[in-house]
Design goal:
eight-stranded mixed sheet; alpha/beta; 10 helices; about 220 residues; globular; single chain
Length: about 220
């Protein structure tokens, strides 16, 4: 089943301030993050960026989606990968199907070209999670996942991965070690200092490169 066609973004479900309100103060903040990331990517040869948070509910998915839009608006080809195989959300942002996706590619049932969505936003593609598997750790830590991240670098300037929360789940630590860099999202008034510190230590243990921390809200 080939579903690599343009998908529709609807205002009733979209979080894309950078797309619909490019002159707003919040859109400007996302542009600032994009500018900083662009500097880091050029200096450290960074293409694959995983975005995570210490715990669920910190707003990382909304934030990374807007960052991806901001990067695409700078005439770079971007691939969003929903590697949160426990509670995927990116397909809802783009109001598109999640029947097939990353899990199908990792399981060898389908190819990347068969499941990637070309979104309405020029230069921004989406690889949704696909059906939630019973073995997310095994899939994300597999040789095929590593090979996929290498392969997509040939077609995209930037690859941004959404992930599960870092604390309590082993999935994200494995994935972090496969990416060129990690962006940690913490939420003002919600994320505890202890949780943020623990998340940082976990990334260090996984030998992941922490690009920076974003304070949300």
């Amino acid at each position: 089943m080939i579903i690599n066609k343009k998908t529709m973004i609807t205002k009733r479900k979209n979080p894309f301030l950078t797309y619909y309100y490019p002159n707003s103060l919040l859109a400007d903040q996302f542009q600032t993050i994009q500018t900083n990331l662009n500097f880091l990517m050029s200096e450290k040869m960074t293409q694959t960026i995983m975005v995570t948070s210490p715990e669920e509910g910190d707003g990382k998915s909304t934030l990374l989606a807007n960052i991806a839009v901001a990067i695409a608006q700078q005439k770079k080809k971007v691939l969003l990968i929903d590697s949160n195989l426990r509670a995927p959300a990116l397909h809802e942002f783009f109001y598109t199907s999640n029947t097939h996706g990353l899990t199908d590619v990792l399981s060898g049932r389908m190819t990347l070209s068969e499941v990637v969505h070309h979104t309405e936003i020029w230069r921004l593609d989406l690889l949704s999670s696909g059906a939630i598997p019973k073995n997310p750790v095994e899939l994300l830590g597999s040789k095929i996942m590593k090979e996929l991240l290498v392969k997509v670098k040939e077609s995209y300037d930037v690859i941004i991965l959404d992930s599960s929360a870092l604390i309590k789940l082993p999935d994200t630590k494995l994935l972090a070690s496969l990416c060129d860099g990690v962006l940690l999202v913490v939420k003002n008034g919600r994320t505890k200092l202890q949780s943020a510190s623990e998340a940082k230590k976990m990334l260090e243990f996984a030998k992941a490169r922490l690009l920076g921390v974003v304070l949300n809200q």
